[in-house]
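Lecture notes, continued. The same structure-token format from the folding unit now serves as the input rather than the output. Read the line below as a description of shape only.
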């Protein structure tokens, strides 16, 4: 098969009928199709060729992020092993054996301490708890001035004092020193007639 030149003058190899058939062939869906596609690949027998359910290295999540020389099966398994299936007894926290620091909110640390991170009150390289979102300086503030028992006692004391003061005023409040005025005929004529709201007149009930 001869060669031909590209526009830049460099020689290129002409496509053979075998190359065209390999590109344009459409094998049936199934294991035969997978084996046919893998027949032209330069790699040892993997799951795609042997019928195993294990995907080839190119299907590994990290395969597209690594150079081709690091995409072999043994290399990927050595660098990115599967997470071990541990029991509750082997891994009590179910977090891969990560050792958590004490569960203490950052607000309880010394605000004037010589911290590397003054805002978060944390030193450089200090491990964080797996629930750090509950312990950070911007997490909900934990009210520690008093507890529920003394707080309820203080609220009850306030309510009782208020009721005692109101009762004392009700008992000792003096009667009115004056009596409302009475007008002749309730000032009916002066206020606009029978349809108008009249004033107090003699004989009305005490307010």
């Amino acid at each position: 098969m001869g060669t031909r030149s590209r526009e830049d003058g460099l020689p290129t190899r002409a496509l053979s009928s075998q190359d065209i058939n390999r590109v344009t062939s459409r094998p049936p869906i199934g294991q035969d199709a997978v084996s046919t596609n893998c027949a032209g690949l330069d790699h040892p027998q993997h799951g795609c060729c042997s019928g195993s359910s294990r995907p080839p290295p190119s299907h590994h999540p990290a395969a597209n992020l690594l150079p081709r020389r690091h995409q072999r099966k043994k290399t990927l398994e050595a660098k990115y092993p599967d997470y071990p299936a541990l029991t509750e007894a082997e891994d009590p926290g179910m977090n891969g054996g990560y050792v958590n620091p004490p569960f203490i909110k950052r607000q309880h640390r010394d605000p004037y301490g010589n911290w590397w991170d003054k805002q978060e009150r944390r030193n450089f390289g200090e491990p964080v708890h797996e629930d750090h979102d509950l312990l950070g300086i911007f997490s909900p503030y934990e009210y520690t001035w008093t507890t529920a028992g003394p707080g309820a006692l203080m609220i009850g004391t306030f309510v009782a004092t208020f009721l005692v003061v109101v009762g004392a005023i009700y008992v000792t409040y003096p009667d009115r020193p004056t009596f409302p005025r009475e007008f002749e005929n309730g000032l009916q004529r002066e206020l606009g007639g029978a349809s108008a709201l009249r004033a107090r007149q003699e004989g009305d009930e005490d307010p």
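Point for the exam: The CA atoms of residues 128 and 164 lie 53 Å apart.
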